[in-house]
Amino acid sequence: MLYSVNNREGEVMLHPWGLDCRPGTAMSSYRNEYHHAIEHPEAFWAEQAKRIPWTTPPRTILDYDNQGHARWFVDGEMNTCHAALDHHVESGRGEQAAVFWDSPVTGAKRRLSYRELRDQVALFAGALAGLGVTKGDRVVIYMPMVPETLVAMYACARLGAVHSVVFGGFAPHELAVRIEDAEPKVVIAASGGVEVDRVIPYKPIVDEALRTSRHRPDATVILQRDLVHAELGEGNHDWQALVDAAEPAACVPVKATDPLYILYTSGTTGKPKGVVRDNGGHAVALHYSMDTVYGMAPGEVFFSASDVGWVVGHSYIVYAPLLRGCTTLVYEGKPVRTPNAGGFWRLIEEYQVKAFFTAPTAFRAIKKEDPDGEWLAKHDISCLKALFLAGERLDPPTFHWLEDLLAVPVIDHWWQTETGWPIAANLQGLEAMSTKAGSATVPVPGFDVQVLDRDGKRAEANVQGSVVIREPMPPGCLAGIWHDPQRFHAAYMAAFPGYYLTGDGGYFDEDGYLFIMGRTDDVINVAGHRLSTGEMEEVLGAHPAVAECAVIGIHDALKGQLPVGLVIPKDSFSGDEVALEEELIALVREKIGAIACFKQVLVVSRLPKTRSGKILRKLLRHIADGKEYGVPSTIDDPTSLEHVHNAMLERDLGQASEARLV
Ligand code: COA
Ligand code: AMP
């Protein structure tokens, strides 16, 4: 049943859950807060804004840009580094641990108090200032999971500079694309990172990226690590030498709407989107989420096993825990093989973690090696109060396995790089609800989530559609795409005016629980990492022997999805097909990086297309995933389907043997 309430403009809005929420009737804390945030966003967020320190408190709470997109706290001034570090030192939290670093791949561990971290950040900010970095300048950071990465990010924030962290698994070309777009004054890198079985020197990757990039930074700063030494050339500076000579820098107040960072994420084309995050709204939203979503109080330990190169790392390793006065655990290791499947349990016990957050794929990897939880039995994890999962859908088998294994709530929550914090969750700090397998539970206060059909009408309960967020989006969400307002409009705002398009499909059930079922565009999710099939197609299409190609994401039991390329060689191609496939695999690894997990290519002679020439990728996915499929009336050459199906069968691809033409 749908229930109507009046929204802030007095028009009727339908809420998907059926419970009575009229004033004066019994109302749950969740519904109360949700409706308050949607109906009175200015009052709601003005109150939340009081929880962070401002140099100039905002008087204008909500404003809109010329695309109708919300801007928060426009006349407020603050500094994110001050709110996360100096403020806590000044209010008596200086000796508390801000960061625990645990690196099984190097055998190192470190504890940094709030005071130590603040002092290191101030010095490194001084070093950056000495290189000419000032407010508004961009700084690209290419670093592994070490505390210095946090130091570098906070140092930028301290100066009002804009950092752009690039994940260490990306190849030189990807780094170069980001350097060209962000035009940084300085690039900061470590000498290397460690994967399970190998050390990865970063300096050659940075050098290659700078060689091919059209933009030249003024300087490159290198953090030398014991595991690998980087040769320093012209324009290169040693991190430690700079710090030794630096004076500490003070926090520079910035406007709430000034950018804190740019984080590139995959879109539907080859060019990644530079998601811009502001300072004030971001701090307010993350602070609110730590309390309301994660139920964290100051002084408690939060562990997010992601990488600082992803949004989860930005929000819930680097910024949110410290904004809230918690301790963050930085882990340079994997869920398995560093050295075993008990790594997470050890960390939870050793650092007395209260809430833990990772991607479902990490637990699928653990489950494969330790299905009965024998490693868990070796540890006392009674300190843990909740487990949060995101990055991809929490598949019901993994959800049930975790529920059986653990005595704490297992919470699937949904969000994206663009929003920066959860859109839907089971809110542990507000009102814990019962969970439903496959659902991210309910929209978080501030997010007016709706499911629309093709015509922009609200879908009934249990009917799938496009999941959108009605403006105003709450604080903390993307301010735009770096230097590309048109792309922002086209990608997010154009489809349904007044709504932000998430790119995910899904539905609300009759109880108002939200189910996110997958992307409606060419974005795929591999081991919790967001990748663009369009980008991979551009790489394949650039090979001289390839006439046409399609990349699809097929189901994988461990990583959720894996990319598969289908290529048609040019008529002139007379070489060896196996050699071509190997070359194409190597090309994607070289251009995008190992993280693309691109390991399967099929050479075919035809691809199913519509008469207007559009490749029927969804149909290809259905075949590879073993689903039933029909011949669409718009298909140009119906025999192409059988041809592709046979090619997949020959290679025993995915579940193609289960697929049936109906
Ligand atoms: N630097 C360089 N290379 C990296 C890298 C990094 N930071 N991270 C991953 N890679 C490489 C891996 O070594 C691997 O290379 P290979 O093809 O030579 O084996 C490749 O990229 C693919 O990595 P991945 O998909 O991570 O596979 P894996 O087998 O190494 O590990 C999991 C599998 C499930 C354990 C791992 O993906 C994982 O921990 N996932 C959780 C993801 C996550 O936290 N996502 C963030 C959103 S919450
Ligand atoms: P990223 O921007 O890398 O965080 O990836 C965001 C995308 O990951 C979303 O648009 C979803 O497609 C997917 N995603 C993240 N969390 C979930 C979840 N809990 N359930 C389903 N999909 C999710």
From TrEMBL:
The chain positions of domain AMP-dependent synthetase/ligase read 95-472
Stored Gene3D superfamilies: 3.30.300.30, N-terminal domain of ligase-like (3.40.50.12780)
Q: Name one Pfam family in it.
A: ACAS_N
The AMP-binding enzyme C-terminal domain covers 535-614
Residues forming the Acetyl-coenzyme A synthetase N-terminal domain are 30-84
For this chain, the family text in UniProt reads:
Belongs to the ATP-dependent AMP-binding enzyme family.
UniProt name for this protein: Acyl-CoA synthetase
Supply the source organism for this entry: Litchfieldella qijiaojingensis
Source species taxonomy:
Bacteria, Pseudomonadati, Pseudomonadota, Gammaproteobacteria, Oceanospirillales
